[in-house]
Amino acid sequence: MSGAGAPDFFYREAQRLGYVARSAFKLLQIQNKYKLIKPGSSVLDLGCAPGAWLQVACQSLGPLKNGGMVVGIDLKKVKVPSLHCDTRVQTVCADVMKLPRIQVRALSSQKKGFSVILSDMCPLVSGIRDKDSALSVELGLRALDLAVGQAALTHSDGSFQMEDNFDSSIACSDDNGVLQQGGHLLIKLLESEDMQEFSQICKPLFRKVSWLRPKATRSSSREIYLICQGLESKAKI
């Protein structure tokens, strides 16, 4: 019952409660502990397929009258789930690795950026540990780059290199990230020796940086989440 595709408690609970995937419980645990999404938040969900995090994010906004919005981006075309979502949720079919920050910011309310960015992006796992870890870091760096912009490069010692499918010219075309000051960033990575280097890049940029492996994570999985809270002002960065 602990295999990658075997039904388990969280799978059954997802079906019972109307979530489109068991991954909803990962974000629910993170949300319960860190309260990243508040009423009125503007949320960007990177790698949003199949839509379970869209559901949890929308629920976390509270009633429709509280306002807020959730924008999901994925390579796949994702239909907004009918349960737990409302008109505040929209999805975009696009390659995050090739989207200029200015286009991502344009998806936010009044083009002011997002207060929360969630990245559940994960590479197609090959089974080759080092290769999979490198691809995971690449996706994580892209999420960080979108969030904080040029500040991410400023605090990197050059240890991490983007692969060929990341167009550096689009990143440099707009120095400002799309995460609002004081905002939060959540990034999924695969456990590796690069984890601590990644967190060291983030620590000067955020008020608090933590690691969490949600209980809903399968025992066979190497997934772990980096929670970055409170983006510091540019003056402090």
TrEMBL record:
**Listed GO molecular functions?**
rRNA (uridine-2'-O-)-methyltransferase activity
- Kindly indicate whether the keyword Ribosomal protein belongs to this entry: no
Q: Name one Pfam family in it.
A: FtsJ
Protein keywords? Methyltransferase, rRNA processing, S-adenosyl-L-methionine, Transferase
Decide whether keyword Transit peptide is in the record.
Answer: no
Q: Which residues form the active site?
A: K188 (proton acceptor)
Q: Where is the Ribosomal RNA methyltransferase FtsJ domain?
A: 19-230
Q: Which family does it belong to?
A: Belongs to the class I-like SAM-binding methyltransferase superfamily. RNA methyltransferase RlmE family.
Q: What is this protein called?
A: rRNA methyltransferase 2, mitochondrial
Q: Which organism is it from?
A: Ziziphus jujuba
